Protein 1
Amino acid sequence: MPPTNKTPPLIEFKGTTLPIVTVSLRSLQLGELGEAASALFGDDPFFDGDAAVLDLSQAGAASSAKWQFLKELFRTHGLNVIGVRGGSDELRESARTAGLPTYAAVDRSLRAAPRADDERPVPTAPPPALEPKPEAKPEPAPEAKPEPAASAGARSPTLFLTRPLRSGQQIYARGGDLVVLAAVNSGAEVIADGNIHIYAPLHGRALAGASGDTEARIFSTRFDAQLVSVAGLYRTFDSGVPSDLAGKAVQVRLAERTGDSSGKLVVEPLRID
């Protein structure tokens, strides 16, 4: 009889989901990026060793960059750059030579592993149209009418999150609002193209209007965030949340733009009349 004991394989492949931060760069000049990163994150590491992919699609006509210095720049803020995406062929080849492979864009509609109560139904394809019977005479074609244009502000159904997010986890509500009914712990991140409503403690990061919606807002019943953002404008709380906001119900919004002003991110107590 052959032996029943089997030696475990030396190599095994298992599927997994890892948090990866996408960093969009509009410049590859180290001086400019260093100043922008310091203004955005401060001088201390902001991230917790998260993996990062550099998005080069808006980096201009550059054909190369000082990749090792770029990796070190983001490492000082707690990001480990593992690759790039987008940009010209020459730029991606330059990155590959420096040890940074190219990654294709992936759907981030739900980055953390969902449970049954977080899943949304997947639409099914309509049944195929029946062919007309041979003896049937074709009906006159109705006059074609243009379909109504989709509204630029049209959104997907609201995504509900009913479980806490741990450090390193990320949820993205693509095209709609996000409603969170459990704690967002330090190091976790919630993102939505629309508004974010958090009826629980917010200790991590919240980014609303991720696709550029300047009307989006963030609401939290217990505010203790590391970072908040609306339509790309950020505010960090490296030294802690101010006492007039800490632990209170707040809203985060963009102030109205005047003239050539680029707007201002406002974090204020939520007043309900």
Protein 2
Amino acid sequence: MIEGLRRGKPAFLASVTNANEAGIALEGGADIIDCKDPAAGALGALPLATVRNIVAQVDGRASVSATVGDLLSDPEVMTAAAIAMAETGVDVVKIGFFGEEDPRAAISALGNACSHSTKLVAVLMADRAPDFTVLEALRDARFAGVMLDTADKAAGSLTTVLPLRQLGEFLRIARAHDLFAGLAGSLRERDIAVLTPLEPDMLGFRGALCTAGRKGSIEADCVIAVRRAMDNARFANVAPETSVA
């Protein structure tokens, strides 16, 4: 499980591109600060120096995660990228698997090289026919968690790519394998009330935090609106206590 979640489930992950955006996200109520370059792909990696600056800006006030880029499932390439990113001081390193190759060899190598020193989270692509059977391999490799995201950000929100039934099945399998489970992929504010009853551990946002799209800059008002919507959905999802006569 990712530590430092301040408000319970689902946690609010905000993807940022620099230390200034990290400060805005923190002030607006994000629980997890995610380092990512949206101009470099679905899981574009930021320069290591930029990630270090973000870690310094957050200064332990929230968990910090970082992506390693849109890489092929090559054990050596992925392991080297994960080790380098872990050395920036982030709490979580996110590794995307895009469905072109069997990821199991890379998953095993990553677990052997990195899981003892940093938390690893796999990212599967909902629009690339994700294979949920690899969650067993993630557990065996001591990954901390797994997320569903989308590779093609023009394809619409995660909720339009996969039906809620399949999203719920993903979360169920992740929980059965003791994996932290998150949902992301062009999520909008309106998706929060739909996804919260599925009880994901985390919901991730970028485009919803920017008035000019995911490659624009994070706006404080947008972050606050998502935080408010998440709080409202979480409280609405809590069943009232049964009164006793």
Protein 3
Amino acid sequence: MALALLLATPAGAATLCTALADAATGKVLRQDGPGCEARVTPASTFKIPIALMGYDAGILTDAHAPSWPYKPGYPAWRKEWKRDTDPTYWMQESVVWYSQEITRTLGMERFRTYVDGFGYGNEDVSGTRGTKDGLTESWLSNSLAISPREQLGFLGRMLRGELPVSKRAVGMTAEILHAGTTPNGWQVHGKTGMGFARDAEGKPVRGKPYGWFVGWATKDGRSVTFARLDRDAARQETPTSWRARDGLLAELPAMLDAVK
């Protein structure tokens, strides 16, 4: 299918980083913006490592299993989350409670071992100070943080088979992340994420949200990883992450044609 490029008005959004790297070598091919080295919350881009964990541990079995029912008390910030969810729908609609059920099933010891083995950002899954929410909250504007450059590094290690997970886990994760084909023939896989900075007391600052779109594109045996990080001057009606995604997808064909 062709990629939908439905662009929203930037509405005060600033692009903190746009970066591309060759997946086979890790060589950075392009880096623009002042925020490529700064760590922020991964938010829902962390569903990529959670999917790898889930498939490697046998909790997830294929693109449509297991299907788990929504239960009262689960996070339901969007109405789309109040329904049975399988891995494909989880990734498509970014269902937070499904991520949390995977990590709960793993348990903290295995969860932490995976994060450490992935070399993911600051590797801090401790969660909120004085609580024990790291297993289910650490990536949600909490203790875990990663930079755009580190996102490229993680994705490159994944595609080169350097992470402590099975080849099948990588393949299944790629399947549920497929985002379409560019007009110039690149197969794109990616995930959005939206989150907030934290104040001195550790509470999320609800204004000025971050918006991520990270992933990779493949054509003729070559893969290029990418990371886009935007931040709004104030919260907008359209999620920052959706606009980061749509903006990058609009620019990506020309960027990919230009890389050597």
